[in-house]
Amino acid sequence: MIRKMKTGWQVDIQPEGRGGRRIRKTFRTQAEAKRFEAHVRGKAASGEDYAPRKRDRRRLLDLIQLWHDVHGSSLKDGASRLKKLYLLAGLMNNPLAASITPTEVARFRTQRLAQGLSVNTVNHDMGYLRAVFNVAIRMKEWHGDNPFAAVKALRMPQTELSYLTQAQIDELFAALHESRSRHVVLMAELCLYTGARWGEAQSLRAEYVRNNTVTYVDTKNGRKRTVPVDSEFYLKLKAHGPRIGRIFPTDAYAAFTQALNRTTIVLPKGQRTHVLRHTFASHFIMNGGDLLTLQRILGHQTIQMTMRYAHLSPEHLLEAVKFGPRRGVDTTLTPGTNEGDETGEK
User: Fold this and answer.
1) 3.40.50.720, 3.50.50.60, 1.10.443.10, 1.10.287.180: CATH of 166-318
2) Most buried in the list 25, 28, 91, 244, measured by CB within 10 Å?
3) pLDDT one-digit tens code per residue, 111-141
């Protein structure tokens, strides 16, 4: 039923009949009221939920807690991610989730950049918050749009992947041998010989060093991978640690940093121990290794990550010389001289 009220035109209906759910809603015009009544009756007839949704009063922290309960708690870094999300929600003043707009998201991102945070850090922050809404939508706990989905990640300038020359490798290990740490040399060798991340080497257990291979299970992406090593280094690893448990019970990062500081090696920011991984990958490709094998050794989920080393391939460098233009030499083909060229066929 639609009736005229002082405040407008009121729709008052029970689509399922007497005893069913009652819907009351007031509109400014009679036409709007009729459209709403037809919409509700149509939904009820098709068996769909016809009741208008109540305004969602949950705040951002409520959705973050939901994310953690149904998804985040199972992640390897779930606890640290939750802590970061709580920090971000606080910086945004914990707004009503329904009130967050893409424009506000973009402004928040700009504020973070202005505070001196790197593009990579800010992109990760936006990705974490985007995931909160994505999980809520997937669980059918959120029926609006994802305000963070409309704000695309910022393009990051490609950073130089530094690697050590053989002379620099020798200089670094000379400094490492002067360290008081009994683990630092072997940990550095492990990263250099297998392309491991420092944290992967740190958590390596003796049980996963067998048959001249090293298996990493505590990896960044959660996927284990096995890398062969030569017999001499394999025996050094087996002799260094216990038969069961972690080979390196204490970290040697500080010792590595101190040794590096005693050398003439200068590295880009953020590539301190990671330069060993880059050095392995770079020398692997320069010595003729193929990208697919390197992808498996490094544990990259996509070949695009491994392609960053493609420019070091000997074939790539030779082709640049062979097929590139040279001053004073005409390297282009003359029409008709290439067998099979349609312009030169008689």
Assistant:
1) 1.10.443.10
2) 25
3) 999 999 988 899 999 999 999 999 999 998 9
Average pLDDT, the chain: 87
Other Cβ atoms closer than 10 A to 110: 11
User: Which amino acid does the sequence have at 261?
Assistant: N
Record the tokens describing residue 123, joined without a space: 């992109």
Residues carrying an active site annotation: 197, 220, 274, 277, 300, 309
Going by C-alpha positions, the residue among 176, 180, 208, 206 that lies closest to residue 189 is: 176
Contact between 92 and 139 (Cβ < 8 Å): no
Q: Which of 283, 279, 282, 193 is nearest to 236 (CA)?
A: 193
Q: Is 245 exposed, middle or buried (0-12, 13-18, 19+ CB in 10 A)?
A: exposed
Q: Structurally, what CATH architecture does the domain formed by 60-138 represent?
A: Orthogonal Bundle (1.10)
pTM: 0.62
pLDDT number for residue 341: 42
Residue 295 contacts by C-beta under 8 Å, 6 or more apart in sequence?
Answer: 303, 305, 306
Q: How far apart are CA 269 and CA 286, in angstroms?
A: 24
Amino acid letter for position 235: L
Structure tokens at 104: 């506000």
Whole-number Å distance between alpha carbons of 207 and 227: 14
Identify the band that residue 89 occupies on the pLDDT scale cut at 50, 70 and 90: very high
